[in-house]
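[09:14] KT: can someone run the structure on this one? pasting the chain below
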Amino acid sequence: MRRSSLLWTALILTTLLLSSAGAPAGGGGAAAPAGDWLDRAWQGILSSEYRFSPAPDGVFSAPNRAQGLRVRMESGRVQVTPRAEERPSWALALRLQGVGREGAMAGARPDAFRADGNRIEQRHETLGLTEWYVNDRSGLEQGFTIDARPGSGDSRSPLILEVAYSGSLEERQDGPDGVSFVTSGDRQVVRYAGLRVADAAGNQVGASLGLGPGALRLTVQDAGHPYPLIVDPTVVTAAWEVLGDQFAEQFGNSVSGAGDVNNDGYADVIIGAPRFDDGFVFDEGRAFVFLGSASGPAPVAAWTADGGQAGAWFGYSVASAGDVNGDHIADVIIGAKLYDNGQTDEGRAYVYLGSPTGLSTVPAWTAEPDQNGASFGASVASAGDVNRDGYGDVIVGAPDFDTPVNVDEGQAFVYLGSASGLSTSPWWSAGSHLFSSAFGFSVAAAGDVNGDGFGDVIVGAPLFDNAGFPDEGRVFVYAGPLFDPNGQGTTNPIWTFDSNKTQAQLGYSVAGAGDVNGNGIADVIVGAPFWGSGQVLAVYGSTTGPILSPSWSTKINKNPAEFGSSVAGIGDFNGDGIPDVAIGSPRTGDMSAAGQGSVRVYYGGRMGLVNTASLTIQVSQANAFFGGSVAAAGDVNRDGLMDFLVGSIGLDNVQAGASNAGGVDLYLGFRTRKTALSPTLHGVRFTD
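[09:31] RB: done, structure tokens below
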């Protein structure tokens, strides 16, 4: 029996069309009607739009409404252009050029294309290879199946796959393992990077992706490895991007999934821009909500809210609040850490309620600490349901709060949900019992880390000092219901962790990770961005008592990187049933550009988080600070896979003439196939 699929490599081509301010909300697609059978029928109609249509001259074409692409297949090549432009502003064509080894490359002589619905393929008989494409809402997927090992050339030399490129974009090597394509204005629209290959035994195979004369060269060090080889995905496409339009407004300083705030079945997203100016009201701050749809988030915000005073920094923190009033519609919470109301820079937190028509125009709840300089609202989050009464609760951090004993000790406050909304007074609060520790700089719902059925919370104090390690940082986990059976408030954490490293600032970021090792107990992830180039720890939940040491750690060796400045549990991004995590390092750069920033995704598994990043994403603009914020977005396009958001406060909006305006990218989950025949490489990002 002939062994098939010696090598399978695939490529996802997706797009982001940046719309004008007057573009309709909805991202170019309609939301599905209500009702299960209507929803299935509607999805069927949407899917039919992606079929390839033949022309008499052997050309096939297909639109891709969700990604804004037009695809044309002819003469052994695929060409992709923006769908909505009569005269495309860019074009990229790809053509398989050859397969083999150095000095013994066999050229491609493809047969005609054959289409079946949204799949099209062509056979390269002389290469023993089938090239195929699948067009769907996630983009245009390109793949190759090679039937047998190339017989000519030195078998000790690497296997090479060459794909010729042409069009209006300029190419450049982007780091040691990436290639970028940019417009004449130096705007990156395509990036290939992060190639990973595994052999038949599951061992990693060395591989690189570079530029040859007019072609991409995928080089695989296959000597000594059993076949088939798998080229695995490590770079994913941004399916949606939105930019700020004011100079240095810090759009994307905070990002979060908002939940479904309008009850249409799609997850929505919320973004904060704390330095936004409303006319001459400087640094008032603004928060934006973009509604989800079958084609992803709308290009224009459906809802905004401002801080109401200069210097409030409204939107410094944003998050879903869960359902705080029990109406089964998600609500949001927003922090304005420098808000004044009788006390300078005391800070304020706001909750806006969701409804079938979207978020309320005025906050249903606000809270303040009534203390100068407390920075209340510097961090906000859903606390889950800490008392198990069926209502969502929230947690707010005030890292500069003074206690009667310690200046700038910091404090975290939990407010309980109810049928009438959140409690007016905090139900619980805690501190670090140490001055200037910045307790509450980061807060999050931890999930149920001890398996008792109550939601738990996690709080970071990145400036905590202990045992001669100034600013080493400490992380505190508190078990729900936060009160003991006698009704007495408990401020004793069930877990604490220190870095034992001077100025590491452990707890700068904290998040619930979900159950990343599949044991049924929630886990947490924490960042220490100044521990060398940065380090991140995970602690796996347990029913057997306090965990005394981290279960997992990872770091990178690029300096400065500030790896771990942001961390997030992003849900099941790759469709294997186990949650994954994302980690931002906004200072990562290379010799050509500092401060570009990057985000790494680590997949969960039955043994816990993988040791090596499963996916790495970065941008080419210097000082973009990509990865300064990361967050789960939920399932914004309702494909069953979780998506995530990345904020970059330094991104330029060239079209608006706003440097350092900031931006946010959305990355859609994709299913990593479990057979040896179906890995997918997501490596291309299109924008106009």
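[09:33] KT: thanks! Residues 240-667 form a domain with the Methylamine Dehydrogenase; Chain H fold (CATH 2.130.10.130).
[09:34] RB: yep, looked fine to me
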